Amino acid sequence: MKNITITVPEDVARWLKDKAAEAGRSVSSWICELLERTRCEEDEYETAMKRFLARKPRTIEWSGGRRPAREELYDRPGKKLA
User: Angle at the Cα of 47 (from 36 to 2), degrees rounded to 5?
Assistant: First the structure.
């Protein structure tokens, strides 16, 4: 383990101590868990993004062989396009 010193405003320090106490943990272990969870979420996001970007683009098959007009795509019931 590596020790790190941080400086936070008084109100943040009080909030932090309260949150750690509610979880039955020390401030240090509560922050460590928070950081580990954040790192894991970022790793999962990056893995998913790489997997998505590695996919080969696919061709859209339009029904009847024609692309819809803009008005067909964006028409909303009850609204008239000017």
Answer: 25
Evaluate if pTM is beyond 0.90: no
What value does the CA radius of gyration of the chain take, rounded to a whole number of Å? 26
Backbone region of residue 60 per phi and psi (left: phi > 0; alpha: psi in -120 to 50; beta: other values): beta
Q: Which residues are CB-contacts of 30 (< 8 A; sequence separation ≥ 6)?
A: 16, 19, 20, 23
Which secondary-structure segment (H or E) carries 52?
helix 27-53
Q: What whole-number distance in Å separates Cα of residue 1 and Cα of residue 9?
A: 25
| pLDDT tens, position by position, 17-44 | 999 999 999 999 999 999 999 999 999 9
Tell me how many degrees the CA angle 66-67-73 measures, rounded to the nearest 5: 140
Query: What mean pLDDT, rounded, does the chain reach?
Result: 90
